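Hi V.,

You were right to ask for the full record rather than a summary. Here it is.
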Amino acid sequence: MSGSLGIVWLWSGAAGARIGRNLLPLLTGAVVAISPPAAMAQLDLLKDCQRYDHSERAIQACTELLRVLPDAAPIYNHRGIAYMQRGELARAIADYTVAIRLSPRDAWPHYNRGRALLEQNDFAGAIEDFTQALARRGDNALAYNGRAWGYYKLGKLDEAMHDVNRALAFDPHYAAAFDTRGHLYEALGKTDAAIADLRHALKLDPANPLAHITREALQRLGAKR
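Predicted structure:
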């Protein structure tokens, strides 16, 4: 099983939109001393920095903004997200690390760095970051599911099951968590439960980029269509 198996599920669907904060409040103080046209230009950059559909444009916009707001942790966080979308994990981790230093109480940079570490198969490091994210925001279903996947990859199935159930308690419609739990049930030899969860994951998010892996798991388990 590859290290990145199921990674997209970890932050897919509606829950996946909550991986960063709205950047617009950042300019409240920054634009006071500049002219309205300049302020509007910065607002346009903020909108582009938060784009999830065009990573290159987001990186360029975030980089421009950091020249004006060099201590803005959310901008580093969003640029890290854009680097992640391009598969540039080292750069993403570097930006998340700066965001953590600048805003140590913010859960999202820890969560996002945990995602990147999962991609690098650093499961212990990912678990630590997800734990830090949960210490800052205890209702974070994404962090519980991410940590569950890390535990699963390390063979710590009891810890993984606890966390994925917590994720589903906070978000009962979280497709990624059903997918994670389906893989856990498979590892525990609970075939019927695994099939039920994997099917529900597909029902909740049939367009997920890794849905084919879930379908392969169902075939492996002998599920009938």
